[in-house]
């Protein structure tokens, strides 16, 4: 048994998206660790299953899928021939890339992206780097001849300088960090499949079959352009219909409010209470903490902590706070979302988007300040607000046009003009409709409230500020 790229496979796993995923011995060893198994308890789309009942898939499945897509891309690149590598070096580079794909999401917090914007300049990739370096996963990597720090750097988007294959790995970085990388290809297919939304059914085989290296840069043949455009437009549609669905966003805001207003401030001390570590704590903690405390930080412990608080008789929360927390918890438990009373979804265009976004955020801040003067509105348990100045940390469908052709995240098309090869950015091609779509930037404002008078007041002030 072998992988597409020729590595010795020890086991096959069946997957609803890719059918059969092959695994090597080191990958099996890593998957068998408790810290990787915890990804089974981290839902891919947070609480989106309250909107799309099938969206109960998890980060464990996605990591296996990303590994598989990475292997398909590497198979098409023919690295051994391109770089004249020995069998040993070729296998090592391929295994390194597969490991990076497998571990790229190992640092995700419960509910995936929901709590990530509580940290400034600190992402799940940064947490994953600490997990890799400070746990049994790192020990397995060392046992098989890989440096945990190198893998940790790579998943944060930094090629490992000390690795002897640094130059090659730098060239391969876009396979996991670009607008058309293995991560995005898998989650788009997987999210569309489990939500039942028809927009993510992309031709991944065509994209993977026509990837190539030209002048040491990842490019795609013009034959894959239609498939790539379909992929990008599907991401745009999934973003609009699934990732920022007004009810999904509502539940994300509820989770935030429960954590910030009740769980975080409570003084309870029992073994599985839900408390998110600070950035410094992630940096300072040792193996034992990652294998125990971090492992236990789960979505289940979030709900268990709520239940404990509601039943507790101490001074963790006041009676009023318990009543408010119960109301919020029941919106999830009984699937009764808070009413969306104002939603403003703008697609601003480049180069005006930065200015427009700034103006909109200023107006929204003024609106929020005006509403705060009416304490009965903003102090109510059901008041929720999405701040447009803090974007949701899920990749936008397409970045704005990038003038820097050296940017590794851009999608490059390899054109053949009279026998001469030329690289062109997809969003700059004259015959690509992505050129127009890439000039848009989403700015989202959402307010929620369950009191009818408050809804009317929010709508009135919002419409005066932004229009209906």
UniProtKB/TrEMBL annotation:
Name this protein carries in UniProt: HD domain-containing protein
Instruction: Supply the source organism for this entry.
Output: Promethearchaeum syntrophicum
Entry's SMART domains? Answer: HDc
* Source superkingdom: Archaea
- Any one Pfam family here would be HD_assoc_2
The molecular function GO annotations come to: dGTPase activity
Sorted alphabetically, the Gene Ontology BP terms of this entry are: dGTP catabolic process
Q: Give the taxonomic lineage as stored in the record.
A: Archaea, Promethearchaeati, Promethearchaeota, Promethearchaeia, Promethearchaeales
Q: What residues does the HD/PDEase domain cover?
A: 55-197
């Amino acid at each position: 048994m072998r992988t597409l790229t020729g590595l010795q496979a020890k086991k096959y796993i069946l997957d609803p998206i890719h059918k059969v995923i092959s695994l090597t011995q080191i990958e099996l060893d890593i998957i068998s660790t408790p810290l990787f198994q915890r990804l089974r308890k981290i839902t891919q789309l947070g609480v989106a299953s309250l909107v799309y009942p099938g969206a109960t898939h998890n980060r464990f499945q996605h990591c296996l899928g990303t590994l598989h897509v990475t292997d398909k891309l590497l198979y098409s690149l023919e690295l051994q021939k391109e770089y004249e590598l020995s069998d040993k070096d070729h296998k090592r580079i391929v295994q390194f890339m597969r490991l990076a794909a497998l571990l790229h999401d190992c640092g995700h917090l419960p509910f995936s992206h929901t709590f990530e914007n509580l940290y400034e300049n600190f992402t799940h990739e940064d947490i994953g780097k600490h997990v890799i370096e400070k746990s049994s996963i790192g020990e397995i990597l060392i046992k098989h001849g890989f440096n945990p720090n190198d893998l940790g750097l790579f998943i944060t988007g930094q090629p490992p300088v000390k690795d002897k294959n640094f130059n090659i790995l730098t060239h391969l970085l876009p396979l996991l960090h670009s607008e058309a990388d293995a991560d995005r290809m898998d989650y788009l297919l997987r999210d569309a499949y489990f939500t039942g939304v028809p927009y993510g059914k992309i031709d991944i085989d065509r994209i993977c079959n026509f990837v190539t290296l030209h002048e040491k840069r990842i490019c795609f043949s013009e034959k894959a352009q239609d498939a790539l455009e379909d992929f990008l437009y599907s991401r745009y549609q999934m973003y609009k219909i699934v990732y920022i669905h007004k009810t999904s966003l509502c539940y994300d805001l509820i989770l935030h409010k429960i954590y910030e207003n009740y769980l975080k401030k409570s003084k309870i001390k029992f073994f599985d209470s839900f408390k998110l570590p600070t950035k410094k704590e992630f940096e300072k903690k040792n193996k034992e903490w990652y294998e125990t405390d971090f492992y236990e930080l789960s979505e289940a412990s979030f709900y268990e902590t709520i239940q404990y608080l509601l039943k507790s008789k101490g001074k963790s929360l006041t009676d009023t706070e318990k009543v408010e927390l119960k109301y919020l918890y029941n919106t999830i438990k009984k699937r009764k979302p808070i009413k969306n009373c104002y939603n403003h979804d703008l697609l601003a265009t480049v180069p005006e988007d930065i200015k427009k976004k700034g103006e909109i955020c200023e107006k929204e801040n003024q609106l929020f300040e005006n509403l705060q003067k009416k304490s009965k509105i903003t102090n109510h348990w059901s008041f929720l607000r999405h701040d447009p100045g803090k974007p949701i940390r899920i990749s936008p469908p397409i970045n704005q046009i990038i003038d820097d052709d050296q940017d590794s995240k851009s999608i490059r098309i390899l054109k053949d003009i009279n026998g001469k090869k030329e690289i062109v950015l997809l969003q700059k091609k004259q015959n690509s409709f992505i050129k127009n779509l890439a000039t848009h930037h989403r700015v989202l404002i959402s307010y929620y409230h369950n009191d009818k008078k408050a809804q009317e007041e929010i709508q009135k002030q919002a419409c005066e500020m932004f229009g209906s």
